[in-house]
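Example 3.2
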Amino acid sequence: MVVAQIDYVKCLKEISLIKDNVSADYLDDILNFINIFSCKKGQQFIMEGAPVNGLFFICKGKAKVLKTGIYGKEQILRLVGDGEIVGHRGFGTREKYGISAFALEDTLLCNLSNEVMKKMLLDIPSLTYDLMLFYAQELNRSETKVKALAQMNVREKVIDTLLFVDRKFGRNLKGFFDVQLSRKEIADYAGTTQQQVIRVISVLKKEKQLFVSGKQIGIVNRNNLKKDISEHNYFLDC
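Structure, written as tokens:
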């Protein structure tokens, strides 16, 4: 669903990469070439294997970015929120997206086509520089996650994922994570199985490390939970 044009500027101000580098006058010039639309919870907005159509930015909401492996098994690569970029791995290098993306809640998105994005990068050096830094940060995070998946046991992977979600999205008024993830989604991000996640969460609940209500999960004491993975000397960053 396309959003009324009156919301465009407000939406764009939620994107730090644009807000920090693109002037209001420049935005006015390209406004007609920017597509802002909304997705319902669970709706797909990037399909793996589809032709690349520029970059997507989360104006408001949350989404998961995933890749399908052998036998159809999904691996969640990223969980993203307000102001973050999606689809950047295909931009400028591929003809087709190597990932899929789904809204985790009702989400407002901005799409900048390949042509618009390339023009902006040529016109605005600071935008190009900040995007380069973003790519470097993403590479570092990917390497950190590969290390975690290789060295952590199942309990540690689940705990690390829960701590990441807590840092990434914060908590609601009841103390639960401010995003609802299924046990399968937690498993797909942690690199384990749904059954193992259910088992670990059950154990952590009995240990009074977590409190749970349906899909909602909350951490009782974050510092105590960190001790379980402290020997690794790192935690997956936001």
